Amino acid sequence: MTLITRRSLLIAGTAATAGALLVPAGSATAAPTATGKQITVGSGETYELSATTRVSRLTIAEGGRITAPDGYSLSLTVNGVETGQLLTETGGTATLIQAGTYQGDVVLTMATANEVTYETLTFPFRQALYVGTDGVDRDRSVLAAVLGGRLTDTLARNVSVTSTGECFDGVFVQDATYTLERPTISLTGNGRCDFAGYGAAVVGDGSATKLVVDGARISNKGVVRTGVISNDGANVVVKNSTVRCRNGVLPSDYQATVETPYMESVPWMLGLDGNVRATNLIGKNSRATYLNSTVFSETWGALSVEGGSGLKLTAVNSHVGNTGAYGYGTYAIGDATVRVLGSRFDVGSYATIIAGPAAVVHYGDSTKDTVAALNTELELGLTAAELATIPARSTVVNSGHFGYMFFGAGQLTLDGGTVVNSERATFLNKGQQTTISVDGSQGARLNPRDGIILQMIELDDPGPVNVNGKMMNVGVYTEPTTDPAKDSTFDTTAVHTTDGAATFTSIAVRGDFYNGMRTGKNMVLTFEDSTVEGVISATKAKHRVATIDSSTYYELGIVTNTIQAAVNNGAIVRLNSGSTWTVTGTSHLTSLTLAADAAVTAPRGRTVKLTVDGTETALAAGQSYTGALVLTVA
Q1: What is the rounded average pLDDT for all residues in the chain?
Q2: pTM here?
């Protein structure tokens, strides 16, 4: 292990005076001055450095430029703080040191370029610490921004990185094994792309990367100034750490888009606002695990999974959420696997957005066996002593809006002692194929304050709009004004693989289930050894406002229900062994199946009546009914 002395590296190879290190560019209209320990660049002048340089004062006039040769990047630190750098244009990738006077321990670090290509753009990364296959890469690092602690080729301990410039990264690990112990990283000012990690505190990149972040304190503020990113097959393990990210100010000419190389704010069509995610997991077969950590974004999202395939996101015994009114805890897209065990979620809008098409999400307990199995599967590297100190806990979700939102197809499992407290429906299904499983045998509970367990509605995302060849977030959702037309080819009494399905096992559920779809999709509910008390019905769902755009994004998903007969939105109920449904109000079904020991009842002192296609029919255990079923309570 090589111990790196940052100060000696910083000035290695520099000449005695600043002037000897500066090479005026041919385009300069006059020669900039470099006297002793000062550099002055006049208006219209361009100064090109030939090596890393330290001075006590740097002055750049308006219209002046100080640059590095091709193949190199230039970073400015003042008293160990990276500063002064701003993007040259909105949507661009290049940065430039701004005009002004900088005094103190002024270091201009010329580093070998670290260019990262994401889709159509190449980002010129600058980072305080670059770690490659051979350890710390001095040539690519801006070591003047790494203060305190101990730094080796395999470990950084108690170091700090502070940035007030734009698009500066703290630590970038490329195809290497590295450990960050108790780092303090604070980045203020905008980043540029959290799909590439341009402007993030910590980035693990590449399939050969194993990055352990232990005891970190990461605090960022700025547009897409992300805390932690795992990309392109990296395995990033964050434990005993705090990651907090706050929104920045978008450029005045920024136009909201879903084109990921240019996206700097959350698509409002998710019912959210904000411009920074605390973390992101991207690429192919990347992994990110958060153990005994606190991860918060202001809005948008805390633990994001965005694009790629084979991604695995895990939170164990962690506190995750949003400090603002809107935001999600986790996001699951593609075929991502998302596991939340023994954690507390305090979220603005959703515990998880499931965007599919084959996402698998599990909320449960952090039992010792489960954590030990994850230690092996995810190659976390936890020692037997560490495993022994991890307490078994249950997960608690507190959401200011919905519990879980299906924006795409996916599978969701809630078990153990998981408790979900939400202001609105526990499950919001926006017209997607779902496989929801809730196992209450170990105490899992669902507590929606508005009394709705499951709400199915049409997808109310208006989608982006093509504006001059770019997909912009300027769509408008308009509430349909006509009743849906009956689709004679769709069977509302049958179970289809594309339906919205949910199974409840060994649990007492109190709340309503509504299918407000207009097009062909059934709500299929199965109860195993469970009791359910509430209304289960096809409905007509209607938003509170007739049109929704970016100014009223918070209205998305919020509907009122009018109980009515199914059109293309069947309600199928299967009461399996040991299950009872207590009907609390009129319910329109299309299929009802009762096991031999199942029952349909009414609240005490009332009676329930069933009609099938308008004919009153006796309810009996062991029977099945299909057609236009209406259950009423008298």
Answers
A1: 94
A2: 0.94
What Å distances lie between residue 109 and 56, 139, 361, CA to CA? Answer: 14, 10, 45
CB atoms near residue 327 (< 10 Å)? 29
Dist CA 410 CA 135 (whole Å): 40
* Neighbouring residues of 120: CB distance < 8 A, sequence distance ≥ 6: 261
Which residue, chain included where needed, has tokens 């693990």?
A: 204
* 3 state SS of 20: helix
Structure tokens at 272: 């959210």
Q: Is the separation of the CB atoms in 210 and 235 below 8 Å?
A: yes
pLDDT tens for each residue of 501-549: 999 999 999 999 999 999 999 999 999 999 999 999 999 999 999 999 9
CA angle 268, 273, 276 (to 5 degrees): 115
Kindly report the three-state secondary structure assignment for every residue of 475-540.
CCEECCCCCCCCCCCCCCCCCCCCCEEEEEECCEEECEEEECCCCCCCEEEEEECCEEEECEEEEE
Which amino acid makes up residue 33? T
Element (H, E) at 159: none
C-alpha 311/C-alpha 231 separation (Å) is 10
Closest alpha carbon to 306 in 195, 415, 214, 196: 195
What are the pLDDT digits (tens) for 365-397? 999 999 999 999 999 999 999 999 999 999 999
Which residues, 6+ apart, have CB-to-CB distance to 604 below 8 Å? none
CA 195 to chain centre: 11
Ramachandran bin of 120, using left for φ above 0, alpha for ψ from -120 to 50, beta for the remaining angles: alpha
d(CA 551, CA 543): 15
Cite the DSSP H helix spans in 307-379: 368-377
CA–CA separation, 62 and 538 (whole Å): 66
pLDDT 10s digits, 176-201: 999 999 999 999 999 999 999 999 99
DSSP 184-253: EEEEES--SBTTTTBT-SEEEESTT-EEEEES-EEEEESTT--SEEEETT-EEEEES-EEEEE-----TT
Can you tell me the distance from the alpha carbon of 431 to that of 601, in angstroms, rounded to the nearest whole number?
30
3-class state of residue 2 by DSSP:
coil
CA-nearest of 439, 364, 353 to 404 is: 353
Radius of gyration of the chain from Cα atoms? 29
14: Cβ–Cβ under 8 A, 6 or more apart, which residues? 21, 51, 52, 53, 54
Q: Are 308 and 362 in contact (CB under 8 A)?
A: no
Contacts with 118 (C-beta within 8 Å, 6 or more apart), sequence order: 193, 195, 196, 260, 261
Helix, strand or coil for residue 143? helix
Helices (H), 144-190: none
DSSP track, 234-286: -EEEEES-EEEEE-----TT---BS-TTT--S--GGGS---S-EEEEE-SBS-
